[in-house]
Specification:
Number of helices: 12
Largest sheet: 6 strands, antiparallel
Strand content: 15-25%
Order of helices and strands: HEEEEHHEEEHHEEEEEHHHHHHEHE
Radius of gyration: 20 Å
Oligomer: single chain
Strand order of the largest sheet: 1-2-3-4-6-5
Length: 404
């Protein structure tokens, strides 16, 4: 496997190059464990984001296939908060996706800058749950929800990035969900996902990740903060999550109930589905002084388009946005190499704003500083962010063995 430095040099060398004699790569927006994201311009002047799978991974048919099918999954969900993939193609040894480009910031970036009010967070999570209600009904499980994959666009709307690790009901994932394989980001995976019990990974697994995302954004901490990937996985697979109350003692009880129930160790104790969690979130928002308008079931009904082509676009004026990267499987790497070679400890790598360490992370701004009906608006972003996810193949020791 090439070193990270070699992969970066290879990615930078593409700047100025042309793909298929029509897309010119103007600037690098992001770099991750499996792909680089560029701002590109078509010969007709249209600007987009192009995500290019690293060359050494393009030769892997399983990885390339999953990378290219991200668009088919994302485009099958009819909701303006889901990114559109405009096209996919392979040129020589370069597999790439063409996506919209967004001038915005991720929720993690806003949290790190202490610019995410509680009202904004609750509105964003409510919209995310609308997306999940539709996706889950269609048999699509995201499997990699986290603050870095949720972007607040300049126009105030939330964007759900990176369906590269998503599972679709009609797609066979055996090559990437075998024994000893982990898909997802360690700090945001549910107990059944951490243990590799893929027969139990479903919509409620995504809801656990929503709870972990809220926990991170509200407290500045991760649910499990072990020293290294193996420790975090063992904790996630065997230990219940702490209560939000333990780290945010002044939180309204209704908000604590929402987060704690989403993070329940047993699936039987979690919310039944995304709609149920959203209804509970409405009550929590009211307790926080933030209004979330009740959404009738018809507004989040499972309306979906036929996923026959990644080139089909939505029937709304596109925002400019970039989707995340597809799956990467890293086999039997020591924990310290994961963060260096694959970016799997912090899979989202930002060119302009590296994330601070957990110990230095400020807590979420209180909603008291925000007006009661605060709209979900992002401050103008200094740059465009790109998301990249990774999958990790864990050494054969099972985290569940820690119970002995």
């Amino acid at each position: 496997m090439p070193s990270r430095e070699d992969i970066v040099r290879e990615a930078e060398a593409r700047l100025g190059a042309s793909l298929k004699h029509k897309w010119r790569l103007e600037a690098m927006l992001g770099f991750g464990g499996m792909a680089s994201v560029y701002r590109a311009v078509h010969r007709n002047g249209k600007r987009v984001a192009i995500k290019v799978l690293h060359a050494h991974l393009t030769a892997d048919r399983t990885v390339r296939s999953r990378f290219l099918r991200e668009g088919y999954i994302a485009n099958s969900i009819e909701h303006p908060a889901v990114v559109s993939i405009l096209d996919d193609d392979v040129a020589g040894d370069v597999a790439f996706l063409i996506a919209e480009l967004v001038d915005g910031e991720t929720l993690e970036q806003l949290r790190a800058a202490n610019r995410l009010a509680r009202a904004q967070l609750l509105h964003a999570i409510a919209e995310l749950l609308e997306v999940l209600a539709i996706a889950h009904h269609a048999g699509i499980i995201h499997r990699d929800l986290k603050p870095e994959n949720l972007m607040l666009a300049r126009n105030g709307g939330i964007k759900v990035l990176d369906f590269g690790l998503a599972h679709a009901r009609d797609v066979h994932d055996a090559d990437l969900t075998g024994p000893g394989t982990l898909l997802g980001t360690p700090h945001f995976i549910a107990p059944e996902q951490a243990a590799g019990r893929w027969n139990l990974v479903d919509a409620q697994t995504d809801l656990w990740a929503v709870g972990a995302t809220m926990f991170r954004l509200l407290t500045g901490r991760y649910v499990h903060e072990g020293s290294g990937t193996q420790a975090v996985l063992a904790q996630a697979a065997t230990e219940p999550a702490p209560s939000l109350r333990d780290h945010l003692p002044d939180a309204p009880e209704a908000l604590v109930v929402v987060v704690d129930r989403a993070l329940a160790f047993s699936k039987a104790d979690r919310f039944e589905d995304a709609r149920a969690m959203r209804h509970a979130l409405e009550a929590a928002a009211a307790a926080c002084g933030a209004d979330i308008a009740p959404t009738p079931d018809s507004a989040i009904a499972p309306v979906q388009r036929e996923a026959t082509s990644a080139t089909r676009t939505r029937g709304w004026v596109p925002a400019i946005l970039v989707a995340g990267a597809a799956a990467l499987v890293v086999s039997n790497l020591p924990t310290d190499e994961l963060s260096i070679n694959a970016g799997s400890i912090t899979p989202s790598i930002w060119v302009s704003a590296p994330a601070p360490s957990p110990s230095a992370a400020p807590p979420l701004a209180s909603s008291a500083a925000a007006p009661r009906r605060a709209p979900v608006r992002a401050r103008p972003a200094a740059s465009v962010a790109a998301s990249a996810s990774a999958s990790v193949t864990v050494p054969q020791a099972n985290p569940l063995d820690r119970r002995k």
